[in-house]
Amino acid sequence: MQPLYIIKIGGNIIDAESKLSHFLQHFSQVPGAKILVHGGGKIATEVSKALGIEPQLIDGRRITDAGSLKVVTMVYAGLINKNIVAQLQANKCNAIGLTGADANLIPAKKRQIGAIDYGFVGDVESERVNATILKSILSAGSTPIVAPITHDEAGNLLNTNADTIASTLAVALAKSYAVSLIYCFEKKGVLRDVNDDNSLIPEITPTKYQELRENGIIAQGMIPKMDNALQALQSGVKAVHIAHADDVLTITNHKEPAGTVLHL
Ligand SMILES: Nc1ncnc2c1ncn2[C@@H]1O[C@H](COP(=O)(O)OP(=O)(O)O)[C@@H](O)[C@H]1O
Ligand SMILES: CC(=O)N[C@@H](CCC(=O)OP(=O)(O)O)C(=O)O
């Protein structure tokens, strides 16, 4: 099967102009078929505060009321997505920006009210992804850049965690490509001490994950990232890495080990 890299980039890199531009230069050199999924939660939080809408996050997920939905749509689908596309075009990467509403790429269901009402937050399923449109974009030599905005097929946009979008697309395409999913962020990978880049944990299995979580070594935003990563691996994705944004080419060119690799 043809290789496909699905690379996710998060808020701390997107928020730093020079880090983002450095990453995009590298991303444009990743060989073969590739998809970029971006977040941008940090910028959405800043814009939200500037507009007087106090952001509220529970376990890394944003409570998205009608006002917050306007903010995240403007920030993710507009500001961030289009800036990334323009920068990739400047790097000779033929990028095409998409939300989950475009070409019915990612239909979602509004999260049902349980203990917590998340508001306009969408839950997604890999079976419902429009894999056909992604395959045709990739075979035309273009690179989809996916924003974390989905839709409910009834005219409403929904906010979906970007780590979840990346793993859902990876699973949806795993029948057609040998998919490697790479979560890129601002640290060397999963660390024993979150403040020490020399404490990299090179490999994690589901059993080790449980242990690291119980010990509080894996916490905050790393929990949904790990959950999504392991689920992708259990659903046919060939390889999953959690690594520094600067190491993307080291991983895709198989130069040397970098970041954390997940194993079943
Ligand atoms: N063991 C760990 N190793 C690395 N990062 C961790 C760990 N535990 C918690 N984290 C936190 O998880 C964050 C990454 O998750 P998140 O903020 O959601 O990033 P992104 O926006 O890139 O998806 C890191 O910035 C770090 O603060
Ligand atoms: C529902 C939900 O939480 N959506 C996320 C989408 C953005 C995101 O995931 O951004 P990062 O990858 O930069 O964290 C949010 O609004 O924060």
From TrEMBL:
Domain (Aspartate/glutamate/uridylate kinase) ranges: 5-243
GO molecular function list: acetylglutamate kinase activity; ATP binding
Positions contributing to substrate binding: G40, G41, R62, N159
Principal location class: cytoplasm
UniProt keyword Repeat present: no
EC number annotated for this UniProt entry: 2.7.2.8
Top enzyme category: transferase
Protein name: Acetylglutamate kinase
Gene: argB
